[in-house]
Write a structure and sequence with these properties.
single chain, about 425 residues, alpha/beta, Rossmann fold, 7-stranded mixed sheet, about 45% helix, binds glutamic acid
């Protein structure tokens, strides 16, 4: 039987156990998700037919606070995937010292095949099905792959309707007009950018002579590409689920984004006159992108992109994981042996949940922050925790991933005796 994603995720934790000061109780209590809910969501389709979708919400651990994590809409969503994602959320929130446990949700669906009204009925139906399982002090939702502020708005509204009171704090990543936070939409990319900027000098590099390849051009990957381009990095390759493009001297990222936004397909930039004329670029596949000889590789799409099968082909010097779980536990030692430095997901993509935390705080206090306040607080938090993880890695001569788990475990261990 194929190894589950969750057991593979747990293997990342095993490497950290001997460096963390935690009791057997903590380790035992983190072995399984605390609660897993599977629901069937009936949705009336536009043609009058009824269709039932499978949905999940998993709370992995809440020793440090209410569960926190996004909701993913994707055809490959499964209970195993949602459990793994909730596991990573647990360690992400602890690594960043956010007062949350870890949770995650998902619906097995191709949202691109639904109309807007079908998507709304599905999102509201999901909340009808899980309403007793979530809450502002129990488990808080947020966006993830193929969900956005609009979907979060419907979800918060539906929950408030069920509870007969406005419950802003049950969902983060909401539209600004409905209690959302400034800076939440760009937060994942911003957080990754701040850490990359802080790390780069440690490797004696400057943006101008640093080449970057990014897999995934959604909210996180696309925004990060733009931030790096603006800061002077040479972004030589980007891709989406259809494929990618490469230009030796760097792509013109604002043009690529404009085409992607107007056509919804990266493929469109291949042959559209103007961009083809601006940059001289080649077409490449996702596996080819991962094997490029670049200074920085950024997987920003889905899990299990670098495995024991293709890890040998990776040629980057540094990898920053913006996706959750893009590198399997079997691939990690192969990359390590090649001298490739991996900066792990539970640190690098934590900007999203960090600003979700700021949003939740703003909802509870009723005082709203400026974009400067959000970004300054995000920057401080990301760099501070990254430095602490860097110190742990260098004290024990262990990879950054293991160090991030040690850092998170120490905090989880402090909370366990009271839970
Ligand atoms: N889905 C994002 C993640 O994987 C954000 C979660 C949140 O904001 O709660 O970290």
């Amino acid at each position: 039987m194929a190894d589950s994603l969750l057991s593979d995720a747990a293997r990342q934790l095993e490497r950290a156990l001997k460096y963390a000061s935690v009791s057997e109780d903590t380790i035992e209590s983190l072995k399984f998700p605390k609660a897993s809910l599977t629901v069937s969501i009936p949705v009336r389709m536009d043609d009058g037919s009824l269709k039932v979708f499978q949905g999940y919400r998993v709370r992995y651990d809440d020793a440090r606070g209410p569960g926190k994590g996004g909701v993913r809409y994707h055809p490959n969503v499964s209970l195993d995937e949602v459990q793994s994602l909730s596991f990573w959320m647990t360690f992400k929130c602890a690594a960043l010292n956010l007062p949350f446990g870890g949770a995650k949700g998902g619906i097995t669906v191709n949202p691109k095949a639904l109309s807007r009204l079908e998507l709304e009925r599905l999102s509201r139906g999901y909340i009808d099905a899980i309403a007793d399982f979530i809450g502002p002090d129990v488990d808080i939702l947020a966006p993830d792959v193929y969900t956005n502020a609009m979907v979060m708005g419907w979800m918060m509204d539906q929950y408030s309707t069920i509870k007969r009171q406005i419950s802003l704090g049950v969902v983060t990543g909401k539209p600004i007009a409905m209690g959302g936070s400034l800076g939440r939409e760009t937060a994942t990319a911003m957080g990754a950018f701040y850490v990359i900027e802080a790390i780069l000098p440690k490797f004696d590099r400057v943006p101008q002579n640093t080449t970057v390849a990014i897999q995934g051009f959604g909210n996180a990957g696309g925004t990060l590409a733009a931030l790096l381009f603006r800061a002077g990095y040479k972004v030589v390759a980007v891709s989406d689920s259809q494929g990618g493009i490469y230009a030796k001297n760097g792509l013109d990222i604002p043009s690529v984004r404009q085409f992607k936004d107007s056509t919804r397909a990266m493929k469109a930039v291949y042959c559209e006159g103007t961009v083809c004329n601006i940059v001289d670029h080649e077409v490449l596949t996702n596996p080819e992108l991962l094997a490029l000889d670049v200074d920085i590789l950024i997987p920003a799409a889905l899990e299990k992109q670098i495995t024991e099968v293709n890890a040998h082909e990776v040629n980057a010097k540094l990898i920053f994981e913006v996706a959750n779980g893009p590198i399997t536990s079997a691939a990690d030692p192969i990359l390590e042996a090649k001298g490739i430095y991996v900066f792990p997901d539970i640190l690098i993509n934590a900007g999203g949940v960090t600003v979700s935390y700021f949003e939740w705080v703003q909802n509870r206090s009723g005082m709203y922050w400026t974009i400067e306040e959000v970004n300054q607080s995000l920057r401080r938090k990301m760099i501070d925790e990254a430095e602490q993880i860097w110190t742990i890695a260098h004290t024990h001569s262990i990879p950054m991933r293991t160090a991030a788990y040690v850092h998170a475990l120490n905090r989880l261990g402090e909370a366990t005796p009271y839970g």
